């Protein structure tokens, strides 16, 4: 569990940093940026825990998540003028999405939820932090508008469920599902693949 | 319970379809529309369950709600160009509001909450899905701006509570309350009745 | 507990009134304003209770909170044209922030959460109502953009935790923490102190 835990903290940090870089475009002070960044990092898992009734939510008895989020966001806030290209974070971001998804799906499966709901919990864990981030920034959430972020997450969650149902070793199943999500995500970015879209004039 | 359950699923479907038709005006892909539509369908009951502590929330152990929402929204998304007039849905929508309200109120009464809170839970179940839908679409929620949607819901919830306190048969009370909500809602639409409003210049 | 309870109701009323005065700038009917005002009053404590797993949330079995919020907001709605200056409420508002913060922090400490999380719960209780209010009004939440509202709350929560850890009498600790929050808040308003801010061009 120790390695997953460390990866989980890293995913929170990456989420917080990308949220900080996005929030930089707005007139926000340090506090506002840090709060939005921490929410982006832990929001998905928090909603999952609430919906599943795993209360208090996971970070209440382990402040490490909040601390990592605050430190990462503050760092990005004050050193943001280093102007790292945004796509410097695309691969860590894809890994974070993958990790959050498999953790959320695993937790839901452990609680005995139906497979569809387990996959949904994986997607919620993976993408909901970004949704709140965009709502707080007063935008239509990005994932409703662009490429196949959530679709990659859903595909990986389904793969994990299928592998689990065939009693594949859980660690192998987790690694394969994460690879699936990361590959779909990066392929979609590289070739600008997206889902059918509504045109305003139809 | 079987008939109520079926009606409940229908109400989710209607909510999801009207949300899809509203979301069509925006540049959203299939995924974004479906997520917003499903949230509009199950969001009210979800918030009610969280506030009352009925966890995990009602759809976690019954994926039928999510499935119905996804199917209805996808259908409306791909066949939306049939251009059904929006008021084609006014009556199903009013029935959905009525049903969600009486279900929410009944559940809260069963848990022994004070009557005012029970009525509030009915209103939350009835209208909150639409509130999240509008927040996700980056609009001020519609119910804060127009006619007496929530007021109809509140009136019906109160009627149900009064009838229950006089030990009227619960099924009869539910039907009467639903009729009350539907009539108020349709009368308000027909004659453009609304509550006192703030003028920007006062 | 009776005096704290009364102060708590007053804080809900003040929150609801200031939210009403803010919502007046928008085209909202009575219902919309009252709902936003009540949410502003009880939203922070509600989120705290959900995250900590204290369900049902605190106002479910005590309708007084909702009643006070509705009455205060309705009063401000209909008599709002008296044009009380907005800073008429700055001192009650600071007291409300202080009170919500110490209540939230105390509750979390009682449940045995780590100190950082307890402070966070105090801040959430103090400021989250205003955050939802702004989201519902379709604005970037005010506290992310201006002065040190949340910072004052955080400082007071930390002071309470420190005093508690030195076994200072709890009532004295509460009073000192509230004074700390109120003073920081009013000093910040008076001399326009704020945190470092991102400039759009950096």
Task: Characterise the protein shown here.
Three copies of one chain form a homotrimer. In chain A, helix 2 runs antiparallel to helix 3, helix 4 packs across helix 6 (149-165) and helix 6 packs antiparallel against helix 7. Chain A is 70% helix and 0% strand. Chain A is mainly alpha-helical. Chain A has one domain. Chains in contact: A-B, A-C, B-C. The A-B interface holds A 50-53, 55, 111, 113-114, 116-117, 120, 131, 135, 138-141, 143-146, 148, 150-151, 194-198, 200, 202 and B 23-33, 35-36, 46, 50, 55-57, 59-63, 66-67, 77, 80-81, 135-138.
Characterize the largest beta sheet of chain A: strand count, sense, and whether it forms a barrel: none
Number of helices of chain A: 7
Topology order of chain A in helix (H) and strand (E) letters: HHHHHHH
Q: Portion of residues in helices of chain A?
A: over 70%
Oligomer: homotrimer
Structural class of the secondary structure composition of chain A?
mainly alpha
The strand count of chain A comes to: 0
What radius of gyration of chain A results from the CA coordinates? 17 Å
Largest interface: A-B, 31 and 32 residues
The average pLDDT value of chain A, as a whole number, equals: 85
| Strand percent estimate of chain A | under 5%
- Shape assignment of chain A: globular
Unreliable residue stretches of chain A = none
* Terminal CA distance of chain A: 50 Å
What is the count of distinct domains of chain A?
Answer: 1
